[in-house]
Amino acid sequence: MNSSVIGKFAEDAVNFLFQQFRGGFDAFSAALGAVVKLLEDGLAAVPFVAMLVILMALAFWRRGVFFSVFVGLALLVIQYMGLWAQTVSTLALVIAATVFSLVIGVPLGIWGARNKRVEMILRSLLDFMQTMPAFVYLIPAVILFGLGRVPAVIATIVFAMPPVVRLTTLGIRQVREELLEAGRAFGSTDAQLLWKIQLPNALPSIMAGVNQTIMMALSMVVVASMIGAGGLGEYVLSGIQRLDIGIGFEGGLGVVLLAIVLDRLTESFGVKARKTKRVSRAAKAGANGVART
Amino acid sequence: MTPNLTFAPEDVVHPGAIAEAVASAAKPVAATGTDILTVRNLSKIFGPKPERAAELMKQGLGRNEIFEQTGNMVAVNDVSLSVKAGEIFVVMGLSGSGKSTLVRLLNRLIEPTSGQVILEGRDIAPMSTPELRGVRRKKMAMVFQSFALLPNRTVLDNIAYGLEVAGLKKAERYEVARAALTRLGLGSYERLLPSELSGGMQQRVGLARALAVNPSVLLMDEAFSALDPLIRFEMQNELLRLQKEEQRTIVFISHDIEEAIKIGGRIGIMKDGCLIQVGTPAELIQSPADAYVRDFFRNVDVSRFLKASSLMTGVDRGRISCDVATPSERYLNQLIDSGVECGYVCDESGRYQGCVTPASLHKTGKRPVREALLGDVNAVPLDADLHQLAAIALSQEHDVPVTDAAGQLAGVVSCRTILKQVMERRAA
Fold it and tell me: Taking the domains of chain A in order of start, what are their residue ranges?
């Protein structure tokens, strides 16, 4: 099976990049690899029981008793299946990919919100990134960075970044015009407008983007097991290769449980965070006197 | 007290002194009555080819014709006005008349197409961005129709916003903000979020935020229009109370004539982007420039602008000039001969003493005129309005005497005149 001119062009482009910037890719690869390794070793160093307590406490603080119990059970199930090490490894990859996605994606989103032309270019680029089948990223990632965690993280970043860029742009665009007008009327600089008005008011939308990015990163990390990402994905992959329903199901269940925990936790930092704060404040004010006239 | 306080970070002002200045309310920037804000030939044209539209505008073409020919919208057309220090200048107009655009041209939230905005002697229109920012931080603050409070900040942080962007330290800006908070009766709400307040309270926060920067000119864009009638009434009174405490220069945009009359020292009326008449409420009512201006007052109770001075007639036959110590009967025949129901007694210097009737003079007889004066006839000052006149007329049997500031009898308003005016107001 041979590719046409279009495919040849893509191939040439990747080869060109590889030959021209080999040193750069190697350095970047080393740096990224070190970060991921550090993160994974750090997480792995925490004993299971300690992690259980920390996550359950976090779950209780953000959402309450019910979710805390669920988190405890989920972790125990994973531990019982003997998948804790793999889960930690996957979590490390997800965190690394998410952090890089945010570091690149949020500024891009802000830029897009401030400049119509940038937004137009970004939008088509993001559409491309999101609709291209996830597996396709694995090929150039392997050519440029070899096998292992680093190309997996890079492919994951490319795949997981679009939501946070989009939702950052959207969130900033949706800040009410009158708030910007008030900001300007009181003499805000552009930077003050961004930090004091646009970003705080776009936060719920940005947090929704972060949540989406984490979910997509998790799904991609599993796919990236094909190029040696390790973790839960590798377990699932071995289930496929051996046509072993049991192994496949256990790996898959681990991914699902991890996904639910991450999703509910990050979601609570978005809109929910503001709501609970508001309720407690109102309750406090109610005790002091009448809040409404 | 420090005159002309500025909140630049480099200024070393004791925080207590700032708060005190805000609380005790003094901004003697310019003497009351001098022009503090002058607008000259200010225009704003929205659209693709403002130059061409400006030319047509000079030729005197109307707004619609210019739009049809060029696709440009003339929002503000060659407006000139001046606002005196310490006055509330109301810009009135129907929606689409350009009043909201006009107020945004003053602090350049919208860039003027041409013209000058001179605040305290400096033209704002050509200013660089940093200079303009300085003006916005220290000289001009704005209150918005939609409140425009930052939903993620507490009441206190909202009020302190202007000071925060100007670079004031947290402790200093909170001190000033708390002083503004207290002045507007928001003391216990400082930790709440705007969404937890009612509309009226939110706009108090908006007003406090603007006052916290101690601006030379306060711009209020339909500030009370979004409020319920009762709350709006309350806020208008609040504004007047604050204005009594300290004379601040305010440009107030409104589409509500009642509001304009109530709070405005002078009113400017806008129509299709042009300022067509400026004057006090009484001036606009008595001599409206055109039907558009007159229509504004159609449903307004203008009786309070009908003054005793314009309704009274002179007293010639009924006037009795005498020493109140002389015997009453001496004047009885004079009064009967003049054929009036009652006489108005003035002393030698013309000061009004009271009212007598033939019956009261006859009854007093040889005793002094002083004793013949009727106890229940009260005089009103020259600026008494129709309501006051009607109230007085109801409480007594006779026509209402009017006295000037020196106590001299200036004239009389007959009960018939009062009745007639009241009926006419009803008919209108």
Answer: 19-274
- Which fold, B309-427? CBS-domain (3.10.580)
pLDDT tops 50 at residue B401: yes
ipTM: 0.74
Contact check, Cβ <8 Å, B162/A285? no
Inter-chain CB proximity A184 and B109 less than 8 Å? yes
The fraction of chain B above a pLDDT of 90, given in percent, is: 32
For A274, nearest residue in chain B (alpha carbons): B152
CA-based nearest residue to B344, from B360, B328, B355: B355
DSSP 8-state assignment for residue B216: S
Asked if B141's CB is within 8 angstroms of A185's CB, the reply is yes
Distance from CA of B222 to the nearest CA of A (A): 13
Tens-digit pLDDT profile for residues A42-96? 988 889 999 999 999 999 998 889 999 999 999 999 999 989 989 999 999 999 9
A111's tokens: 């830029």
pLDDT at B265: 83
Q: Does B15 touch chain A (CB under 8 A)?
A: no
What residue spans define the domains of chain B? 15-305, 309-427
DSSP string, B28-45: -SS-TTSEEEEEEEEEEE
Q: Which amino acid is at B198?
A: S
Q: Do B136 and A192 touch (CB under 8 A)?
A: no
Picking from B133, B141, B150, the nearest residue to A189 by CB comes out as B133
C-alpha pair distances (Å), A218 with each of A96, A125, A141, A255, A258? 11, 22, 18, 8, 9
Let me know if domain A19-274 sits in CATH 1.10.3720.10.
yes
pTM comes to 0.73
Architecture of domain B15-305: 3-Layer(aba) Sandwich (3.40)
Closest CA relative to residue B253, chosen from B224, B282, B277, B233: B224
Minimal C-alpha gap between A190 and chain B (Å): 11
B428: confidence class by pLDDT, cuts 50, 70, 90: low
Query: Which of B7, B127, B132, B152 to mutate against chain A (most A CBs within 10 Å)?
Result: B152
The answer to whether residue B139 neighbours chain A at the CB level (below 8 Å) is no
* Chain B residue numbers touching A182 (CB-CB < 8 A): 142, 144, 148-150, 161
Q: Identify the DSSP state of B259.
A: H
